[in-house]
Amino acid sequence: MPGISFAEAIGSLNVNDEWGPEVDSATTLDGVPYAPFSKSDKLGRMADWTSEGKEGRERGGRQYGRNFRDQQIYGAGTSSLFAVQVAEDESSFSVVDNTRTTTKRGFGRGGIAVFRGRGQRGQAQRGGRGTFQRVGQGQRGGQQQGGNFYDNRGGRGGRGGRRFGWRDYDKPQRNRDASVNIRPEWIMKEEIDFNRLHKLNLETSEGEDVDNYGFLYYYDRAYDKPPIKNTERKLMSLERAAYNVTTSADPVIQELAEKDEASIFATSDILSMLMCATRSVYSWDIVILKNGNKIFLDKRPDSSIDLVTVNENAADAPMEADTANTQQQTGVKADSINTPHNLAMEATMINHNFALQTVVESQNNKFEYPKPNPFYSASEETDALASKGYKYRRFDLSLEKDDEPVHLIVRTELDAATKNNLSGDDQFLVLKALNEFDHKAQGAGGALDWRTKLTSQRGAVVATEMKNNSCKLARWTTQAILAKADQMKLGFVSRVNPKSAANHVILGVVGYKPREFASQMNLGFSNGWGIVRTIVDLVKQLSAGDEADKKYVLVKDPNKPVIRLYEVPLSTFEDDEDDGMTGIAETEGKEDGDEE
């Protein structure tokens, strides 16, 4: 405008104190969060709600970009401020899915691996320089060699490798046969699993001697010394009269039963099988006779209780041979000498001959009990009598609730005697033998080579035998404690040739005190007495109020940790019995090359 200066024009304008439109309360942005941004951010989207959480963009509030990877992001994580808050927290909910998912492992896309440099520690392994391990394998000290993963045990892992417990489903199914044929007329009265048996407990006294029979030769202490280098003691086959009479056929037990010395009668081999039932894997059976108020624990002729098992408790126990009438294919030849039955027969003969060979037979130097052997008849027998002492001992199984005392008489056996080095008193021994068939064969249970390791690593050899033969060693220890033996001698017998079961050698003998050996095996003696008392009470309960004689059969299931009690007719097994006396190796011929 002409005639108006610039200052006058500015002064005529209505200038507000603040720039912009007038502030209205309706447009106030109170409560809207402020979101700062970095100057380095590029202009892209006005609002990107999906950028947060992208891999490679944000990790713990920092952005790993190519140009500004070390700068703080001023607006990092602020998009959550604008998120809609739902009424309920959905993070506490999860989808239930019972299907098994597998995680792909590898070094390709999506594979997960743990790499470690020198001197660093991984969570699953400890190793050397540049080693690696795939997550989830769990070995220690592994190495990559030739494209394969090896663990520190020398085994081969990874693809195509063998790991214990892996792909065990393709192993041959082990369907063992029962020790006795369950007949249709048998009535099952009770079924007890091993978990219930484990919980039983009964404390008893050490027992008392009722009567003693037989005689004992003295033990040859030369077997305690290690064999001289390059010389081995050959196991000989000796012809001696030995007896293994069942309970009801024992004339001494019959006499004690008539005198009412006890109400329960058994032999140590039968009683030990029942007391150590929870350690057994193979099937066995015990015949129980109830005659009035007396109970006899019996066995059948040719019972499996008389056999000495081999590696029964091993993780990979010996397998039965393939036969035409079985559907399972075990890969074991029909004529194999390493089947469970053939190994048991071999071990039984070894134990018989070992007890006879390790004593000094001298008629002028032996320990004699007051009464002679009750099973030997000099007019009928032609073979010499074996060294054996029979001690009939009584144990009290009574409880406070019992109206009458419950006593058990058991016939125990001793194999030899020896003189105490300090006092010169007689001590009594139980002689048993462990046998090695082939430490490289199937069923060996990871046993060491006895010829090279028995002297230097005796503890490892014994520990392996405790694991593979837990039931057998527990039975032997129980028999020694029942007989109140001072010592138990364990012999280590091996084949001369692993491919032949004809000839054997004695590699060494180790002595143990039965109570100390039982503690090493974690053998609970009170649990065994609890099992015996439970079975006896069950038989009494089933026949309560019935004065008639009863017969029962207790059978261990061949494939499950279960025992079953059957009521059977009184005539059961009578066709198979002759006089109830079975001699073990009475007329066995000498083995090839053996000399008496």
Automatic annotation (TrEMBL):
GO biological process per UniProt: cap-dependent translational initiation; formation of cytoplasmic translation initiation complex
UniProt main location, coarse: cytoplasm
Composition bias, Basic and acidic residues: 165-174
Tree of life domain: Eukaryota
Entry keyword Iron-sulfur: no
GO function term, MF aspect, one: translation initiation factor activity
Keyword Protein biosynthesis (UniProt): yes
GO cellular component, one term: eukaryotic translation initiation factor 3 complex
InterPro entries for this protein: eIF3d
Cell compartments where the protein resides: Cytoplasm
Residue span of region RNA gate: 304-318
Signal peptide: none
UniProt keyword annotations, A-Z: Cytoplasm, Initiation factor, Protein biosynthesis, RNA-binding
Residue span of region Disordered: 118-174, 573-596
HAMAP family: eIF3d
Purpose of the protein: mRNA cap-binding component of the eukaryotic translation initiation factor 3 (eIF-3) complex, which is involved in protein synthesis of a specialized repertoire of mRNAs and, together with other initiation factors, stimulates binding of mRNA and methionyl-tRNAi to the 40S ribosome. The eIF-3 complex specifically targets and initiates translation of a subset of mRNAs involved in cell proliferation. In the eIF-3 complex, eif3d specifically recognizes and binds the 7-methylguanosine cap of a subset of mRNAs.
Domains: entry comment: The RNA gate region regulates mRNA cap recognition to prevent promiscuous mRNA-binding before assembly of eif3d into the full eukaryotic translation initiation factor 3 (eIF-3) complex.
Family label: Belongs to the eIF-3 subunit D family.
The protein's assembly and partners: Component of the eukaryotic translation initiation factor 3 (eIF-3) complex.
Protein name per the record: Eukaryotic translation initiation factor 3 subunit D
Organism: Exophiala viscosa
